[in-house]
Design goal:
This protein is of the alpha/beta class. It contains 9 helices and 7 strands, in the order βαβααααβαβαββαβα. The chain starts with a strand and ends in a 13-residue tail after the last helix.
Length: about 220
């Protein structure tokens, strides 16, 4: 049976890298709420046009719109055949209740547990090369010495904004954990990515949800 997973983690938790590993090794369809939304807007689909109207006004996309978008993708033939990895969705309790009511099977909810101190350190050390767009970290992914002087700090990487994002994340995460309580697998994401992935694999196997298939690449 194909694997359906939800991954939950704050900005800076390594969620993106973990999703890439899972998508590659389990050959599941990686569905990122943010990316799907941008695609729909770019294609000017009915859902994309509806979402764009809210975005123009600086408003949050309604839960109903996000649920339609994700359920449409999660029930496509390829998704039903290979399984899905929902990233950045559900973000609210209402969204979680909606996918449960719609009958979308969820095998596990992966919650990345990271200390506030680690998140602040990861955010504070992040730098962007304005020429190439490459993202570096002064400690974890040091830039070449010849380009250090031209690197910039992203406006969103200030401590104040990071703390604000962390609070919003926790406020949204806690009701999701209660809703999916029997499906939650908590992974210590304060570790290096290889160890985070190894712990994820261990917990998944312990739950009887299988191991990676032969690598086939991302869908």
């Amino acid at each position: 049976m194909p694997l359906n997973l939800i991954i939950v983690g704050p900005p800076g938790s390594g969620k993106g890298t973990l999703c890439e590993n899972i998508s590659r090794d389990f050959h599941v369809m990686h569905l990122s709420g943010g990316e799907l939304l941008r695609e729909e807007v770019a294609k000017k689909t009915p859902l994309g046009s509806e979402a764009f109207e809210y975005m123009k006004q600086g408003k949050l996309i309604p839960d109903e719109t996000m649920v339609k978008l994700m359920l449409n993708k999660a029930t496509e033939p390829a998704a039903l055949q290979h399984g899905v990895l929902l990233d950045g969705f559900p973000r609210t309790l209402k969204q979680a209740q909606a996918i449960t009511a719609a009958g979308l099977r969820v095998d596990a909810v992966i919650v990345l547990d990271v200390s506030d101190a680690s998140l602040l350190e990861r955010s504070a050390g992040r730098r962007v090369d304005p020429v190439t767009g490459e993202v570096y970290h002064l400690k974890f992914k040091p830039p070449p010495s010849q380009i250090v002087d031209r690197l910039v700090i992203r406006p969103d990487d200030t401590e104040e904004k990071q703390r604000f994002r962390m609070k919003i994340y926790k406020d949204q995460r806690d009701p999701l954990i209660v809703h999916f309580k029997d499906l939650v697998l908590t992974v210590n994401a304060d570790q290096p990515i290889p160890k985070v992935y190894a712990e994820f694999l261990f917990l998944l196997k312990q739950r009887g949800l299988g191991e990676p298939t032969a690598p086939k690449g991302k869908l």
